[in-house]
C-alpha cells in the first residue's frame, strides 16, 4: 500500500512517500543527519526504521545494517511482513521485501538512491521514481516531488493514494523540510503546493534555530 524513494544528495538525505493509507510519512520516513535514511513499510513497524538508523550510526554500512535488522531474533516472527529500504553516507541503497509483502511489489537501487513499493499497479513504479528523480532539476525537495508525481501518473498503487510526505535532513539536527498530506484525494499535488509555500522560507527557519537575532520576521503578530 506504499511506495517510496530515499536519496542522498551530498551531505543531505531525503525521502518522499505515498500510500492509500492515512498519514504514511509519520510511520514510514526515517532520517538522521550525517547518518542516513530508511523507509519501513508494508504492514509498517516504525521501530525497524529506527533500528536501521541505529545500525548505520554504529558502523555506516547500509547492507550490513539491513542484514542486522532483518536477521535479528527479536524480529523473526514478523519480518516476513515487512518491506525495508536503507541508504548510508556512501554507496547504493539496499532493499528487503519479506515473503508476505503485499500485492505486486518491486524495488530499484542506484548509487545514492533506493525506491520500493507494494500493492503497486506494476513493477515499473520504483524505476519510474528513480528515473524521474535523476532527470529532474531544482532543489532536492523539488526533485523528490517531481519523482512522486511521475510515479502517480505512471499508475502508482493498485488503488488511489490518499497520503504523501516529504522530509529532508541536512547539516542541522532537525528535519529542514518535513511536509505531510495525511488525507486527500490528490496528495501528490497537495504536497507540491505545500512545498511551493515552504521552500522559499526553509533556510530562514534554519537561521531562526541557529541565530534568531539575525533571522527575518514574517509579520506574524507578536513576531519580530
Automatic annotation (TrEMBL):
Molecular function terms from GO: hydrolase activity
Keyword match Hydrolase: yes
Acyltransferase listed as a keyword: no
Which Pfam families does the annotation name?
Answer: DUF1028
Concerning Gene3D superfamilies, the annotation shows: Glutamine Phosphoribosylpyrophosphate, subunit 1, domain 1
Q: What are the record keywords, sorted?
A: Hydrolase
Protein name per UniProt: Uncharacterized conserved protein, Ntn-hydrolase superfamily
Amino acid at each position: 500500500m506504499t511506495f517510496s524513494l530515499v536519496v542522498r544528495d551530498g551531505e543531505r538525505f531525503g525521502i518522499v512517500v505515498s500510500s492509500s493509507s492515512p498519514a504514511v510519512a509519520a510511520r514510514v520516513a526515517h532520517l538522521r543527519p550525517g547518518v542516513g535514511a530508511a523507509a519501513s513499510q508494508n504492514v509498517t513497524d516504525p521501530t525497524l526504521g529506527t533500528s536501521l538508523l541505529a545500525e548505520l550510526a554504529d558502523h555506516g554500512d547500509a547492507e550490513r545494517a539491513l542484514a542486522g535488522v532483518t536477521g535479528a531474533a527479536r524480529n523473526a516472527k514478523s519480518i516476513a511482513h515487512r518491506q525495508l529500504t536503507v541508504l548510508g553516507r556512501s554507496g547504493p541503497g539496499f532493499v528487503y521485501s519479506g515473503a508476505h509483502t503485499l500485492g505486486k511489489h518491486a524495488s530499484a537501487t542506484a548509487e545514492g538512491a533506493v525506491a520500493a513499493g507494494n500493492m503497486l499497479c506494476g513493477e515499473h513504479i520504483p524505476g519510474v521514481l528513480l528515473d524521474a528523480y535523476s532527470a529532474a532539476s531544482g532543489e532536492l525537495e523539488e526533485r523528490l516531488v517531481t519523482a512522486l508525481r511521475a510515479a502517480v501518473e505512471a499508475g502508482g498503487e493498485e488503488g488511489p493514494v490518499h497520503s504523501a510526505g516529504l522530509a529532508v535532513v541536512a547539516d542541522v539536527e532537525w528535519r529542514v523540510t518535513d511536509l505531510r498530506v495525511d488525507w486527500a484525494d490528490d496528495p501528490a499535488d497537495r504536497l507540491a503546493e505545500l512545498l511551493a509555500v515552504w521552500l522559499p522560507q526553509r533556510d530562514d527557519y534554519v537561521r531562526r534555530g541557529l541565530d534568531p537575532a539575525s533571522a527575518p520576521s514574517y509579520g506574524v503578530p507578536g513576531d519580530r
